[in-house]
Each structure stands twice: as structure tokens, then as C-alpha cells.
Automatic annotation (TrEMBL):
Chain segments annotated as transmembrane: 6-28, 40-60, 87-104
Descriptive protein name: Branched-chain amino acid transport
Biological source species: Providencia stuartii
Record keywords, A-Z: Membrane, Transmembrane, Transmembrane helix
């Protein structure tokens, strides 16, 4: 991407899209009523999207597979999250495990 205008156009499109999404929330507040089942569906959809993005960035690094240390570090974070440990403990444990595995191997 050597063309700065292309980068600027991308930034502007993302900024306008973000603004329109936020403004639509304020505009449609009270005008659109969702049932409890639809609210639960939207909540589950957001979780699925975040999980899939996290897994894709964990398993792949560009066009190649990630190193095993990164995958094991994310697994450690997932296990600690499952047991509802404090966030700082999760982050530090995952980073220490990943760093130690990279140092050893």
C-alpha cells in the first residue's frame, strides 16, 4: 500500500461507518423493540464473532500456523478465564507461559 490516498480513504470510510452505527443506536432507541429471545440471539452472535476472531488470530499468523507457544499461552488464558480468575492473573500467566515456552524451545 504505497498510495496514501487509499489509506486515507479507508480511514474515512471506517470513521463514517463507525459514526453511523453509533448514531443509529441513538436514533432507533425506543423505536425498535426487541424480544428477549432476539436480545439473547444478538448477545450470542457477538460472543461467537469475538471467539472466532480470537481463534483465527491465535492459530494463524498471516498465512502460516502460529508457534505452539502462542497457542498454549492462549489455552492457559482460556482455562484461567473459565475458572474466573482476575484479569491481571490471566494476562500475566499466559504471557509468562508463552515466554517460557519460547525460551525453552
Amino acid at each position: 500500500m504505497d498510495n496514501p490516498w487509499l489509506i486515507l480513504a479507508g480511514i474515512i470510510i471506517l470513521a463514517v461507518g463507525t459514526y453511523l452505527m453509533r448514531a443509529s443506536g441513538a436514533y432507533f432507541k425506543g423505536k425498535v423493540v426487541l424480544s428477549d429471545s432476539k436480545k439473547a440471539l444478538f448477545s450470542a452472535a457477538a460472543i461467537v464473532i469475538l471467539f472466532s476472531v480470537a481463534m483465527t488470530s491465535t492459530v494463524f499468523d498471516g498465512e502460516y500456523f502460529s508457534d505452539p507457544a502462542k497457542i498454549i499461552g492462549v489455552l492457559v488464558a482460556g482455562i484461567l478465564t473459565w475458572y474466573q480468575k482476575p484479569f491481571i492473573i490471566i494476562v500475566l500467566s499466559a504471557s509468562v507461559v508463552t515466554a517460557l515456552l519460547r525460551f525453552i524451545f
